[in-house]
Amino acid sequence: MKVIVQGHFLGRMDSAAYREAKRDIWPHILAPYHRLSQKYDVLVLEGAGSPVELNLKAEDIANMAMARKVSAPVLLVADIDRGGAYASIYGTLQLLTPEERESVKGIIINRCKGNAAFFVDIKPTMEQLTGLPVLGLMPYIRLEIEDEDSLIDPSTGVKLAQSREAMEAQLDRLADVMEAYLDIAQVLRIIGLEAV
Fold it and tell me: Which helix (H) or strand (E) holds 67?
């Protein structure tokens, strides 16, 4: 695989070499984080995969390790569209270390295509089982925004051009849905901001 850190190509590495390289990568990750944290009130750290991939956890840099390094509050988001979301949440919390578990401050259920009325009964059960607030159930919505690399038309494989205005309209739509379905006031308290 190609390894690129802050725009600099470090080389091609197999998985063993990459695991070794990750030990020396922390200063390159933390420096921009600290620089940005001086400029902005909130930084969002997005995890990758599960925070408890036991076979990868010792060298993890994308999930709980980063959250712990910078004392970030963690919101655990489960994709209900894939099934097993409630068991996944409970299992994830059980597999976290006590220190990691302390970082988790709330739960969000994402990508619901089914009947949201069932959530009313599940929410208090999940809160009782986990000891954490369930901050909302996000419906599945299709957004036309670029993913991590680009927005590709699945039928043609061609990157779609997207204007800034179109992107902002989609982000505004996402913000409206989040405001309607999440307890935004509680999310703001968790991240250290008060509701406006």
Answer: helix 64-69
**Structure confidence by residue, pLDDT tens digits, 37-82:** 999 989 989 888 888 888 877 778 888 989 999 999 999 988 877 7
DSSP structure class, residue 106? E
Domain membership of residue 36 as a residue range: 1-40
Query: Does residue 195 lie within any of the structural domains?
Result: no
Chain mean pLDDT for the chain? 84
183: which residues sit within 8 A by CB, 6+ positions away?
133, 135, 136
Q: What is the CA radius of gyration of the chain?
A: 19
Residues 66 and 25 reside in one and the same domain:
no
CA within 13 Å, CB half, 120: 3
Q: How is residue 20 written in tokens?
A: 């070794």
Strand ranges (DSSP E) for the chain?
A: 2-5, 8-12, 74-79, 104-112, 134-139
State whether 4 and 86 are in the same domain: no
Q: Are residues 107 and 154 in the same domain?
A: yes
Residues 33 and 97 in one domain: no
Give the three-state DSSP class for 8: strand
